[in-house]
Structures are given as structure tokens and as C-alpha cells.
Amino acid sequence: MDEKRKNEFLKRTPLFSSLSDRDIENIINKMVLKQFRKNETILYEDDTNKYMYLILTGKVKAVRTTEDGKEIILAMHGSGNFFGEMSLIDGKTTPASVVATTDSLIAIIAQADFYSILYSQSKVIENLLKILCTRLRQSWDTIQLLNFNNASHRTKMLLLMLCDEYGEKTPEGIVLNIKLTHQDISDMTGLTRETITRVLDKLQKSKSISILEKRYIRLSPDFLRDDFDILS
């Protein structure tokens, strides 16, 4: 990736979008790029991390493994998102493993450079606080989701939560622009893959959702009207 593309990318990144061209250039000089292959682990749970990772291209998932060996997806991050900042801020170990779900190009920023950016750029601190608040609210929603005993409610709430980051409004409803397999949804809800298949089949038959190309899911207007109270 050349310097011009890096500059254009960082300008579109929520964390750095408020900065000038000169400030962006200073950040680019602090970045080291690394390619990760699909299914390669970038960070391991309980490791002590000394870097912040910014996704230039590709996608990753943050996962934890339960005592019985089941993988739970805590978050999915795409281009423009970042991870690893928690360990830099509180000095504790990484709370989850981060795995590339596609071939991904990652910009790595060392701890000293991360703090240098924060101390010199108040706008970055403001953006970081807003992003962390959003993630905290998403964590609360995830806790609420996992407390649902009803499999249908868990699945519907997950789809509604994904609207915030991946939803695109269309005349036919909201399209989730993220590829989701039944196993992905299973890992995010704590339900079995077979249960997810049954729930999604029922939602399709009732025309509450439609499965589009690339495994994108479209939520119908009726889905949103009937189930908006789940999140309230």
C-alpha cells in the first residue's frame, strides 16, 4: 500500500478522521504493516500486548474459548476498526484472541507511539473515548442477548445489534453488509448451529428476513417494527 492510499484510508478511519494531512503523515510514519492469512491468530488471549492494531484491509474476529472448548465470538472488526488498545491502556493481558477471518493487512503501532499520538492529538482522544463508549454499550447488549432463553429472541437481537455497524437502509429493509455463516451466528449467540438453521428458516418462511448473495441478510420493515422492542 503506497503513501497516498494510506493517507486516504486513515482519513476515512473514525479514530483519525479529524486530523490534518500533516498529522496523518506523522501517524503513517509510526505504522508498520503486516499481512495476516485467513485463520491466522494475530493476538492470543491472556498475552501481554504492547501494540495497537489497525485493520487496513480484511476482517478479524475477537473470540474466547469456554471451558468445554466452544468458541464464542465477542466482536467482528472490519476495515477501519482497531483492536489491542485495552492492554496498552490498562497494562493487563489481552481479554480475547483475535483471529483473521480473511487475508488481512494490519497496521501495527507500538505502545510508545500510541501514547505519543494521544498526548499530541486531543481529537484522537475524543474519538477514542466515543468508540470505547460504543463498544461498552455493545457489550451490555451482548450480555442482554445471552440472557435470553428463547433462541429466536437471541438471534433476532443479534441481527438488530449488527444493524448499527453493518446496516444499510434500502426500500425493502435493512441489509447487513457482512458475510455471516450459520456457524458465525452460532458462535455469536451461544446457540448450536442446528438451532440457528431452524430459526433462520422460520424467519425466511415468515418473510421477516431474506438471504441475499454473499450471505448478506436483509431485515424486512416488519422485522424491525415487530422486534425493535427487544433492544429497549
Report on the structure:
The chain is α+β, with helices and mostly antiparallel strands. It is 45% helix and 24% strand. It is built from nine helices and twelve strands. The strands form three sheets. It has a four-stranded antiparallel β-sheet with strand order 1-8-3-6. The longest helix is centred in the middle third of the chain and has 26 residues, at 122-147. The protein is globular and about 55 Å long. It starts with a helix and ends in a 5-residue tail after the last helix.
In short:
This protein is an alpha+beta fold. Helix content is 45%, strand content 24%.
Terminal Cα separation, in Å? 43 Å
Percent of residues in helices: 40-55%
Largest sheet: 4 strands, antiparallel
Query: Roughly what fraction of the amino acids lie in strands?
Result: 15-25%
What value does the average pLDDT take?
Answer: 89
Labels describing this entry:
four-stranded antiparallel sheet; 232 residues; 24% strand; alpha+beta
What is the element layout, followed by pairings?
Layout: H1 3-12, H2 21-28, E1 32-36, E2 41-43, E3 51-57, E4 60-65, E5 71-77, E6 82-83, H3 85-90, E7 97-100, E8 104-110, H4 111-120, H5 122-147, H6 151-166, E9 167-170, E10 173-176, H7 182-189, H8 193-205, E11 209-211, E12 217-219, H9 221-227
Antiparallel strand pairs: 1-8, 2-7, 3-6, 3-8, 4-5, 4-7, 9-10, 10-12, 11-12
Helix pairs in contact: 1-2, 4-5, 5-6, 7-8
